[in-house]
Amino acid sequence: GATGLGATLRINKNLWTCSLLESGERGLTYHDDWYETERTETVKVVTLDQWATEHEIDRIDVLKLDLQGFEGPALRGARGVLERTSMVLAEAQLIPEYVGAATFADIDAQLREADFELYQIADLCLKGPHREPASCDGLWIKSALLSAIRDKQPSPLLPGVSKAERMGAALHRLAADGRKRVGVYGAGAHTLACAEPLAFPPVEIVGVVDDHPDRHGATLWGLPIMSLETMRAQRPDALVLSSDRFEHKLWIRTQPLRDDGVVVVRLYDKNRTQHDAAA
Predict the structure, then answer these.
(1) Which three-class secondary structure state does DSSP give residue 36?
(2) How far apart are CA 248 and CA 34, in angstroms?
(3) What is the distance between the alpha carbons of residues 238 and 164, in angstroms, rounded to a whole number?
(4) Are strands 60-65 and 85-93 parallel, antiparallel or unpaired?
C-alpha cells in the first residue's frame, strides 16, 4: 500500500479535541482543560490521493472532513480526488482553536480553486462568554452540479435537519402526547442553538440540566440550571437530550429517570425514546 509518514497526534483530555495540531489560545479559552494535551502518539498519515489510488477509488459523492483544524493540508493532498468528488462537507473554524488551523476562508479558497461553490452553512457554534461564532459545517458542491440543483426545487442536502428544528419537533410531539412538564439536558452550544423553539415552547420547560456543578443555581433565558438529581426530584413528564456529540453518554446517565417512567427523548439516533428502546 501507500507508504505513510509518521505524524504526531496530540491526545487531549477530551478525545473530541485530539488533533495533529497544537491547541491554540482560543481552544483553551473556549474549552478549558478539554484542549490540554495529555500525551502524544505517532500515527501513519497518507494523503487522500494516495489512499484513493491504493483502494482504486474512482468516484466520490460526498467527501466529509472533520480534522480539528487539519482540513487545509488534507485538501492540498486531495487535488486528484477533488476532481472526482461531487460534494465536500467540512467542519470549518471561523476562529482558529489550534495553532495553524485552517479557517473557513482557507477551506473556501481551496475548494473554489478546485471548482466547488459554497451551498450551505449549518451548525454554527457560538463559544466563549461573548458567544463568538467560532466554527460551523459547510457544504461545497461542484459548480456544474450546483447549477443543476439550483434549477430544481430546493431539497435539503445536508444530512438531517437543524438542531432547532429537531428540538421544536420533539417538543411538539411531547405536547401532542400529553406531556406538560419537560426538562432539557444540556446547557451548552447545542441548547443555545435551540433558542427559538425553547423561547416559545408548546410545553412548560421546568429547567435545564448541566453536569458542571459551577453552573447549578444559574439560569439560561430565565430557566434554572440544575443537576440531574435535582431534575429527577422535579418529576418531569419528559426530558429532552440536547446534545449531538454526547447524546449517548447523556442517554446512559438518564437511566434512573427512565426507571422512574420519565420519557427521555433523543434528538438523534432515530429520535429513540424510552418506549422505542423497550420495543
Answers:
(1) coil
(2) 19
(3) 18
(4) parallel
The x, y and z cell numbers of residue 73, run together, are 493540508
Distant-in-sequence contacts of 258-265, Cβ < 8 A, 24+ apart: 260/232, 260/235, 262/232, 262/235, 262/236, 262/237, 262/238, 263/174, 263/177, 263/179, 263/237, 263/238, 263/239, 264/238, 264/239, 264/240, 265/170, 265/173, 265/174, 265/238, 265/239, 265/240, 265/241
From residue 263, how far is each of 17, 225, 255 by CA, in Å?
A: 32, 20, 10
**255 contact partners, CB below 8 Å, separation of at least 6:** none
Q: What is the pTM of this model?
A: 0.57
Alpha-carbon distance of 75 to 72, in angstroms, equals 5
Task: Read off the pLDDT of residues 202-241 as tens digits, 9 standing for 90 and up.
Answer: 999 999 999 999 999 999 989 999 999 999 999 999 999 9
3-state secondary structure string across 70-102: CHHHHHHCCHHHHHCEEEEEEEEECCCCECCCC
Q: Report the greatest alpha carbon distance in the chain.
A: 60
Q: What pLDDT does 159 receive?
A: 52
